[in-house]
Specification:
The complex is a heterodimer of chains A (428) and B (358). Chain A folds into two domains: 200 residues, 3-Layer(aba) Sandwich (Rossmann fold), CATH 3.40.50; 141 residues, Rossmann fold, CATH 3.40.50.2300. Chain A contains 13 helices and 17 strands. In chain A, the strands form four sheets. Chain A has a six-stranded mixed β-sheet with strand order 3-4-2-5-6-7. In chain A, strands 9-8-10-11-12-17 form a six-stranded mixed β-sheet, sandwiched between helices. A three-stranded antiparallel β-sheet of chain A has the order 1-14-13. The radius of gyration of chain A is 23 Å and the shape is elongated. Chain B is mainly α and 358 residues long. Chain B has a domain of 247 residues: Orthogonal Bundle (ABC transporter involved in vitamin B12 uptake, BtuC). Chain B has 13 helices and four strands. Chain B is globular. The chains are: A alpha/beta (428), B mainly alpha (358). At the A-B interface, α2, β9, α7, α8 and α9 of A face α2, β1 and α11 of B.
Chain lengths: 428, 358
């Protein structure tokens, strides 16, 4: 009996969803929007606003629908969950938008180009959607951005750091893409300069896991480090999901590096750092990572072998906004400490989107809202001196909005014991 | 007439292709190995270090592979949820070991620590066995007479169900195994450079697999398992309870996977809800490599796969100047798998009876 009811409900919701997505992304007001209890107001006759990318109509009593897309399952899910928590806190802070509730839905992008494409295509077909926050992994953006741009939508990524996504020569399909995350051209440069100038390293080895993120960072680091006068003695790579790093470490130790630059994600970084001490020839090597494993999970994985490990990550102590207040709200809602390094960027991205929305949304006489999608996109690009948690944000013409303040952190035994990432940078 | 000629031509073409395939791979392996060894980048001690790493990884593959191979032997189905049984065992062992560590057992000398690890292994086995029996009862038994692909799909469903149930319960973050300090130290074994934890993994897995082999070959229950896997109908006529034999198979496979979960945790520290997927696939590969349905084959296949993964990329490819060879670990391992199967289609110790029963 019960099962039948559930089945019927599922069938109805699938039908409703199909109706939703088939109505297209144009200006037609959609009748089958998610919230059912609202007394359907009379659809406004002919949208008063004209926009080349179309408009989204939000009837009185219906929520403003935004979506988060990014990895929410699999080994990298902490990255996506961390950002989504930032978005949720931002939405709680906003409360309502022009008298409408805010509805957040999410799609899992699996941290792969294919997963990103699937998630983006599904979201792009939803005509109630106003804007998106995401993706989490750069690979997802590569796969999914086309669908989003073509639907006239705009997404702001809190954690994609791959340089190419906002490069001056990016193609037109990236028109709907901006980010509050820092660009890795900057992070890789800080890493190289710190190694060469501060640590006095002359021979470095690099390793990546084949992901767009790590490969790009390694590329930037190698170029900058060589320009400074250093030598890259080994460029290694592993496959994602590798548990046993001893073979790779063996190959590296044969080249005699003074530092290993390893901008990978949590699991692989943990394996690598914890297997270095048992590799002959690498006893005194320094390790330098990046924000991809700036997570307590990394400390759990590596244990006391992580002591002395260096990492570049956003400079939390240089955040201008009320970061402490954010952390309190986050902890009250989700408990514990942040899962990764991009929750503040997600918080800023969400607020930035709603600030732009406030400039362009038109309130109609019947209480409904009309959101011109093209004007919204332009307004987001026009963001200037927006005061967020991470700093004062201004967007470039190619979508870089981040206020990049990268610092170097060093893991201490106290951090490992408390399972908290170091909060005070050792550089600058 | 023409069609026949065409058949002959295609047959010859396929033969030529297969031979050149074998020849190319063997040539790459031989020439690459010689070039690497001549280059002298790696000392003999380096190679032995790689062998040690391969043995550790290989023994874990072998223990998981046993579950695949035994279930295949008796039911002719691939239990794709087996990787998750391994994961569940690892979690069970983790919570047991954390509890034991909080009593200080892991810091009271070698004997007490090993005793604690033994208890954790028992706990892990219990968790894995319970889950496996449940999966068999719910996802496989009702489908036993269904076409072959049906239980396969059901297995994939069970696998995802277990993964995401664990994610729901324990979150997507990772847990770190508490390990007593002495396990991280180097073991004084001549030639091989291994840590004590590697030694523990290899010795414990070999011991457990030997016990299992004796159990299957000597005990009454083992004999009934073998009888059911030979011919379920006839075995039933002889008064053997086929259901009992099948459940026992799942129990044994799961117990091995659970123990492997703890050993994996001790050796590689990290435990997450997602950890069963890749070792599961690798262990399945090892089972096929050794000859699926064959117990010693699983052991051989696992060790072979572990060693090839550890040594292969460096030995075969670095001589050609291929950069970052270890990224190609899986490519090398699976090429070797294809090569073995080209020469021995039923695996290293492939069952001789496979054809008559397939």
């Amino acid at each position: 009996m019960k099962l039948n009811k559930v089945g019927a409900l599922a069938a109805v919701s699938i039908l409703a969803f199909a109706a939703c997505s088939s109505s297209g992304a144009s200006s037609a007001p959609s009748a089958a929007a998610p919230s059912a209890e609202a007394p359907s107001a009379a659809p406004s006759e002919g949208a008063p606003v004209d926009d080349p990318l179309g408009t989204v109509e939000i009837q009185a009593g219906e929520p403003v629908h935004v979506a988060y897309w990014g990895v929410l399952s699999g080994p990298d899910s902490t990255l996506g969950e961390d950002s989504r928590q930032g978005v949720e806190v931002a939405i709680d802070d906003l409360g309502q938008f022009m008298g409408h509730d805010i509805l957040l839905t999410s799609e899992d992008g699996l941290c792969t180009p294919e997963g990103g494409a699937t998630a983006a295509t599904k979201l792009a077909a939803d005509s109630t959607l106003v804007g998106l926050i995401g993706s989490a992994c750069s690979d997802e953006a590569v796969g999914g951005i086309k669908a989003i741009t073509e639907a006239g939508l705009t997404t702001i990524s809190p954690s994609n750091t791959r340089p190419a996504l906002t490069a001056p020569d990016r193609d037109a399909t990236y028109a709907g893409y901006l980010r509050t995350a820092h660009n890795d051209n900057f992070q890789g440069k800080v890493a190289a300069e710190y190694s060469y100038n501060q640590l006095g390293i002359r021979k470095a080895a690099t390793i990546h896991d084949g992901s767009a993120y790590a490969e790009a960072l390694v590329g930037v680091f190698e170029a900058e480090f060589t320009t400074l006068g250093g030598e890259i003695v080994a460029s290694e790579a592993i496959a994602k999901g590798t548990t046993d790093m001893s073979t790779t470490l063996k190959t590296m130790s044969a080249a005699g590096p003074e530092l290993i630059y390893m901008p990978m994600f949590v699991a692989e970084s943990g394996f690598l750092v914890s297997q270095i001490p048992s590799t002959t020839g690498l006893e005194n090597v320094k390790t330098l990572g990046a924000d991809g494993h700036y997570s307590p999970d990394f400390l759990k994985a590596a244990g006391s072998d992580a002591v002395g490990h260096l990492q570049t990550s956003p400079n939390f102590s240089a955040f201008t906004g009320d970061y402490a207040g954010f952390l309190e709200k986050r902890a009250a809602k989700f408990g514990g400490t942040p899962l990764s390094a991009f929750h503040a960027q997600a918080y800023d991205a969400t607020n930035m989107m709603f600030a732009a929305l406030a400039k362009v949304a038109v309130e109609n006489a019947d209480g409904s809202l009309t959101v011109p999608k093209g004007a919204l996109r332009d307004a987001i690009y026009a963001t200037k001196d927006f005061v967020g948690l991470t700093g004062t944000l201004s967007c470039s013409a190619t979508g870089d909005c981040g206020a990049p303040v990268i610092a170097v952190y060093e893991v201490t035994q106290a951090d490992v014991d408390a399972l908290v990432m170091p909060a005070t940078p050792i550089f600058p | 007439m023409n069609a026949r000629k065409l058949d002959r031509v295609t047959d010859v073409a396929i033969d030529v292709f297969m031979w050149s395939f074998k020849a190319v791979i063997i040539a790459v392996v031989v020439v690459g190995s010689v070039l690497t060894l001549l280059s002298g980048t790696y000392t003999p001690a380096d190679w032995l270090e790689l062998v040690g790493a391969g043995l550790t990884q290989g023994s874990i593959y072998a223990m998981i592979a046993l579950g695949y191979t035994m279930v295949y032997g008796i039911l002719r189905m691939i239990n794709f949820a087996h990787g998750e049984i391994f994961m569940a065992g690892s979690f069970g062992g983790y919570f047991a070991l954390v509890a034991l560590a909080s009593t200080g057992m892991l810091s009271q000398g070698v004997a007490v620590s090993l005793f604690a690890i033994g208890l954790a292994i028992l706990a892990a086995m219990a968790v894995s066995v319970l889950l496996a029996v449940g999966v068999e009862r719910i996802a496989y038994r009702p489908l036993r007479d269904a076409p072959r692909l049906v239980p396969l799909i059901s297995a994939i469903g069970a696998s995802l169900f277990l993964q995401y149930s664990f994610r729901g319960f324990f979150g997507s973050g990772l847990y770190a195994y508490p390990t007593p300090d002495f396990l991280k130290q180097d073991a004084p074994i001549p030639l091989l450079s291994m840590r004590w934890v590697d030694v523990l993994v290899v010795v414990a897995s070999l011991a457990m697999m030997t016990v299992l082999y004796l159990f299957v070959m000597r005990s009454k229950l083992g004999t009934s398992i073998r009888a059911v896997s030979e011919d379920q109908g006839t075995a039933a006529l002889m008064g053997i309870d086929a259901n009992r034999a099948i459940v026992m198979t799942f129990v044994i496979g799961a117990a091995m996977a659970g123990a492997a979960g703890v050993l994996y945790g001790l050796a590689f520290i990290q435990v997450t809800y997602f950890m069963g997927v890749i070792p599961g696939i690798k262990a399945f590969t090892a089972a096929v490599l050794g000859g699926i349905g064959n117990v010693p084959g699983a052991l051989l296949g696992g060790l072979f796969l572990g060693l090839i993964e550890a040594i292969g990329p460096t030995l075969f490819l670095s001589g050609f100047g291929v950069p970052a060879t270890n990224q190609l670990k899986d490519a090398v391992a699976f090429t070797m798998l294809v090569l073995v199967l080209v020469f021995r289609p039923s695996g290293i110790l492939g069952e001789r009876v496979t054809r008559s029963r397939a």
